[in-house]
Amino acid sequence: QVQLVESGGGLVQAGGSLRLSCAAASESAFSINVMNWYRQAPGKQRELVAAIGRSGWTDYADSVKGRFTISRDNAKNTVYLQMNSLKPEDTAVYFCNAVITSRSVANSYWGQGTQVTVSS
Predict the structure, then answer these.
(1) Contacts for 107 with CB less than 8 Å, ≥ 6 apart
(2) 97 with 26: CB under 8 angstroms?
(3) CA neighbor of 14 nearest in space, from 101, 73, 67, 85
(4) Tens digits of residue pLDDT in 30-78
(5) pLDDT for res 58
(6) Chain-centre distance for alpha carbon 81
(7) Phi and psi at residue 62, to the nearest 5°
(8) How many CA atoms lie within 13 A of 108 on its CB side?
(9) Given the DSSP bridges, would you call strands 78-83 and 18-26 parallel, antiparallel or unpaired?
(10) By three-state DSSP, how is residue 64 classified?
């Protein structure tokens, strides 16, 4: 079983910055393929914010392009989301997601979520 542990959420004023981290851990050997950040605001569906492949390719939702940067440290099995120029509409619970292969089986794993609140 693989666990994703997130950190870095909090309360920030509009225009501020936050950095989210998500570390994967398991007692078994594993390989991380795609790592993603999703978010879910109250009353809304969960949406993909950013994705990064093992080779480093990235993709972003239009709403965060130019403000958010996703990166990963493969040696630490960790993905980051640097969020700049935050807006009140960025307020949501942010979830880390990863497609991970362990013992030749690929599965999708989710973190517990971290709250990001942007005040106006």
Answers:
(1) 2, 99, 100
(2) no
(3) 85
(4) 889 999 999 999 999 999 999 999 999 999 999 999 999 999 999 999 9
(5) 97
(6) 6
(7) -55, -35
(8) 5
(9) antiparallel
(10) helix
